[in-house]
Amino acid sequence: MADEYDYDLFTIGAGSGGVRASRVAAAHGARVGLAEEHRVGGTCVIRGCVPKKMLVYGAHFAEDLEDAKQFGWDVGECTFDWVKLRDNVLNDVSRIEGLYTETLENHDVDIFHERAELTGAHEITLASGKVVSAKHILIATGARPHVPGCDGHELGITSNEAFHLDAIPERVLIAGGGYIANEFAGIFNEFGAKVTIINRSDTLLRGYDHSLRDRLLQISIAKGIDFRFNAEFRGIEKTDEGCLNVSMTNHDDLEVDCVLFATGRVPNTEGLGLDAAGVQLGDKGEVIVDQFSKTNVDHIYAVGDVTDRVQLTPVAIREGQAFADTVFGGGEPVAVDHTVIPAAVFSHPPIAAVGMTESEARNKIGDIEVYQSDFRAMKNVVAGRNERSLYKMICEAGTGKILGIGMIGPESPEIMQAAAVAVKAGLTKADFDATTAIHPTMAEELVLLK
What we know:
By secondary structure, the protein is of the alpha/beta class. It is 32% helix and 24% strand. Strand 12 and strand 13 form a beta hairpin.
């Protein structure tokens, strides 16, 4: 590699994309340095999908223990210890962080636990004052929660702080209509909090099929979650009793104990020296890159949420892998296909989808066929829980090619992973029809759709 530089690659940010890129580049023989000012693992491992999924598991027990009575179990009086769950989750986060760090060290990646900034064409200055040079630079600094600029916004918290609460608030107001808002709404609701969601529009989970999001809204309301649509913050004030009084447009004031902002995420590009380096940024501060994750500066690349292409951990990992293989693998350039990406919302119950929604397909394709199954899971029937699942398959008329699949119901994300392979491969409804069902399962509905 290039001996005139200290490193062949220097990565800023040790999240999922940065870690994968650094490890793979090192495996290809590159000398790699990596700077992370917080903790190795990034948003997903430290304060995102990993600890959140653990809380989702914990929240499910609230209903499972109740349902168990209908299956003959006498579970007695149940109590919930938030601090115990919180600490167990945080301990496992530390364990995973250690594994990430060990993997990097085993590949001889130099880790600098401090902030880094571009201060020259190929120069990086660390917070300690140490200056290093690199032939290639990768920006993988991710994104952070957006906080509205209303009066008193500093009194609220974001998903970052939600994992460290000392207790479950009795009354929680969650701002936002996306996956983070709906996931934490389900978590706090199952833990006994009175949850209200405030959203500036009248649509939840924009981008998901209207049937799925309407079903989630119906079920959430039945579970006791309140919704205030077409509402924006006017301000937040602390009362003499230590509560929070929230004023908003189109609705009465609301007194709560906690306000959680889940109103989107902002790329972390400030203070990195990108302007001085000539790196082009978008309107939201995101790094603009081409199909190979290269910026307008030939030796500077970016992957993951900081590019604002698709803010999903598996996408960042694929982008990191493709970057390392392209720049250091010695073969043909590798571009990530950002189409037909499966995704899930770990709400209660969860939603999963891949490909086009019904509306998207009608607008883009025109002539389509829609198949669906609306049913109660067997477990819910015995438990006496009147909660229905919904599966939808969108196909191109004539050819039967599957354009998209969406579902809401227990274990939908687990089922969707395999179904996404079929959609990505371009299979047809006839291929699903020709597949023998596994009975009795929820997943069999996918091969029995009418």
